[in-house]
Design goal:
With about 675 residues, the protein is of the alpha/beta class. About 50% of the residues lie in helices and about 10% in strands. It binds adenosine-5'-triphosphate (ATP). The site of adenosine-5'-triphosphate has 12 residues, from α3. Keywords: ATP-binding, Membrane, Nucleotide-binding, Transmembrane, Transmembrane helix, Transport.
């Protein structure tokens, strides 16, 4: 890449000094080139000073049972308070108490405290990802609130749980994030280059070809520590000025944790980044490496300053650390309300006398952090809006025209989401368990209905009735199989969707179209194979036209069922509820499909018009039986199932199925568009 281009893309060679890396760009891109240490991680354009003052957070004192009754109660209260001058607030519990401090660029602040002390709540407030009632101020560079939609997207946030596609490799995970998040001015080779550099920096190059793995894909993949590094890498890709991490070292051995904290320290120092991380129980070696410590106890700020000064400060206020103890362990004991006199109070309630005494001592002699002097934020840096990901200036393409470069093009977003989804879902769709189920059932049907569809068998009402039953089973079995696996899609991907939407990586419509495209091959392969096996074994109508029409009906039905499954999943985004709703719907559709009950009560008969199975079955009967079975002139004298069959118009049946498919797909889109952000 020409040096002028590199400057334009914010990869200034002289600013990079962290670690010598030499990587080969082979995968996919076909480029093979050594990258010198001079091109490692660029400095973010805008250093960020984070200031928080008097931050208090409250949660409802009582758990509110979700459900219709509670919603009605809430609505009633809202109406009452609208007509009354007194605003009645539900009882609340305060979980953060006046947290105040400043984090300068280049600093790493470790938030420590016992379990339940408010670390996660506080860090998610700093990231603008907490909807709890909060007072006080949190500002970046005195102007950006973390909840500002545009600003929030520029903050790197690594949550406690790893939100990743389990079926992708480490390289794919980072590469697809790079494509979705980095500006389109960067070429594909540059994006790959950045991925490789991050793999090197985080020490995960050797696992770049391994899958993430996990419960959903049923395979073990990379280790917990490596997953955490991938999650950090995803955020580092777009070079944020602020990186917030929630317990990045939990579950890691002490050496790996030490390396990780070391990497964070270097990233802060070299790139003038502002880094805040919660940390549960650091080893003494990690503690010594910490720059700044923010100690919390039951939502109170107990100490904020140089980690190295904390021991002396606590000794000054009467909490001297016993000799030889790990300071981190000691501070956690102190913050839990244990004074070190050998008597564990055992209680960590808000009225804990030990904690009260500590807070009094802190109040009497507060820690005064040595003056750091005014941090001068480099004026030559561009405004925040230009500093990150999507809005970097594309000075190569639009030099001098003042146009801003947005993220990847829409079709690229759709393409990446589609490919990613195909790779992720192949495990579930083509798992040996599900393949065994469908193929076992296909062979069983073939054996049970062996050659039932040949002309001679159709000559009797009983024989024709058997074929009608087979056709009903075919559409029911295949479509329900897809319906049930589709309901898991959105609940499983909910966290990923929310995370990527919060980062502004793509619009919902791109996600929807990408997923829809991925569904086509995934939902086609099994129905086509199973239908072909049954078709041949059962000896159904031996013409190419009938075969392809049958396949078309089966596929439209499967896509319709898949859409219904997606809709249920998207509407509930909760697996248990989605499963219950799917069972009720599935049985309703089956019972009203026309096979089991002929005389549906008039007041319930409208349901049968909504049953896609009914139209699919009618269409298949039209294709296979019309003109091939004896005409029943007098229904009372005919036996069996065929007595009441009216063939109807095949075109109409296709039309209704297509209409149902379109309406359901559109409903899935609406449900995602308006529902996903509220969960
Ligand atoms: N949405 C919420 N509703 C009710 N209580 C909440 C909510 N969020 C947090 N809390 C409560 O606030 C307190 C602090 O929780 P938080 O998760 O921030 O603690 P933590 O220090 O991160 O704990 P851990 O180390 O165990 O993750 C806890 O008592 C928790 O029960």
């Amino acid at each position: 890449m020409a040096s002028s281009e590199r400057e334009e893309n914010e990869w200034p060679s002289e600013e990079v000094e962290m670690k010598a890396v030499s990587v080969d760009l082979e995968e996919g891109g076909g480029v093979k080139r050594a990258v010198s240490n001079s091109s490692f991680m660029p400095k973010p354009r805008t250093p960020m000073r984070l200031a928080f003052g008097e931050v208090c957070t409250y949660v409802p004192a009582q758990f509110e049972v979700p459900g219709v009754l509670n919603s009605l109660k809430k609505a009633g209260k809202a109406v009452r308070s609208a007509f009354s001058s007194e605003v009645a607030r539900a009882p609340e519990r305060q979980i953060l108490h006046n947290i105040t401090g400043v984090v300068n660029p280049g600093e790493v602040v470790a938030i420590m405290g016992p379990s339940g002390s408010g670390k996660t709540t506080f860090i998610s407030l700093l990231a603008g990802r907490n909807g709890l009632r909060t007072t006080g101020t949190i500002l970046y560079n005195d102007q950006h609130k973390p909840t500002d939609k545009t600003f929030k997207r520029t903050v790197g946030f690594v949550s406690q749980e790893d939100v990743m596609f389990e079926g992708l490799t480490v390289f794919e995970t980072l590469y697809y994030t790079a494509v979705l998040r980095l500006p389109r001015a960067m070429t594909d080779a540059e994006k790959r280059e950045r991925v490789y550099i991050i793999l090197e920096v985080l020490g995960i190059s050797k696992v770049k070809g391994s899958i993430i793995g996990g419960f959903r894909v049923g395979r073990r993949g990379i280790s917990g520590g490596e997953k955490k590094r991938v999650a950090i890498g995803q955020e580092l890709l777009y070079n944020p000025s602020v990186i917030l991490l929630d317990e990045p070292t939990s579950g890691l051995d002490s050496t790996t944790a030490l390396n990780l904290i070391g990497t964070l320290e270097t990233l802060a120092q070299v790139g003038n980044r502002t880094i805040v991380t919660t940390i549960h129980q650091p080893s003494s070696r990690i503690y010594q490496m910490l720059d700044k410590l923010l100690l919390m106890g039951q939502g109170h700020l107990l100490f904020y300053g140089d980690a190295s000064a904390a021991t002396d400060y606590f000794a000054e206020i009467g909490y001297a650390m016993p000799y030889g103890m790990n300071p981190a362990d000691y501070f956690l004991d102190v913050a839990s309300g244990w004074s070190g006199d050998g008597e564990d109070s055992g209680s960590t309630s808000a009225t804990d006398p030990e904690l009260k005494a500590l807070l009094r001592a802190i109040e009497e002699k507060p820690y005064s952090r040595p003056e750091v002097g005014e941090v001068v934020l480099n004026e030559s840096y561009g405004p925040t809006a230009e500093a990150f990901g999507h809005q970097w200036k594309n000075s190569i393409a639009y030099r001098g025209e003042g146009k801003e470069l947005l993220g990847p093009r829409y079709h690229t977003q759709v393409y990446v989401i589609c490919v990613r989804s195909l790779k992720e879902r192949r495990f579930e769709r083509f798992s040996s368990d599900s393949l065994f189920t469908v193929f076992f059932m296909a062979i069983l049907c073939g054996v049970l209905w062996f050659q039932a569809g040949v002309g001679a068998s159709l000559a009797t009402y009983v024989g024709a009735g058997d074929v009608a039953a087979l056709l009903f089973f075919l559409v029911t079995f295949l479509s329900f199989n897809i319906l049930f696996s589709s309901i898991f899609t959105f609940p499983n991907e909910k966290n990923m969707l929310l995370k990527e939407r919060e980062a502004g990586m793509y619009p919902i419509s791109a996600f929807f179209f990408g997923r829809t495209l991925a569904d086509i091959p995934l939902d086609t392969l099994i129905p086509v194979t199973v239908t072909t096996i049954i078709y041949v074994m059962a000896g159904l109508k031996p013409t190419a036209g009938a075969f392809f029409l049958t396949l078309t009906v089966v596929l439209i039905t499967c896509f319709t069922a898949g859409s219904l499954g997606l809709l249920i999943g998207a509407a509930f985004l909760n697996l248990k509820r989605a499963q219950s709703a799917a069972t009720v719907l599935m049985l309703t559709i089956m019972l009203t499909g026309g096979f089991f009950v002929k005389d549906i009560p008039v007041w319930l008969s409208w349901i049968s018009y909504l049953s896609y199975i009914q139209y699919a079955w009618d269409a298949l009967i039209n294709i296979h039986l019309k003109g091939r079975v004896p005409v029943c002139a007098d229904p009372s004298s005919c036996e069996g199932l065929l007595a009441q069959i009216q063939y109807g118009s095949l075109g109409m049946q296709f039309g209704i199925l297509m209409l149902m498919l379109t309406v359901l797909r559109f409903a899935v889109y609406l449900s995602l568009r308006f529902g996903a952000k509220n969960r």
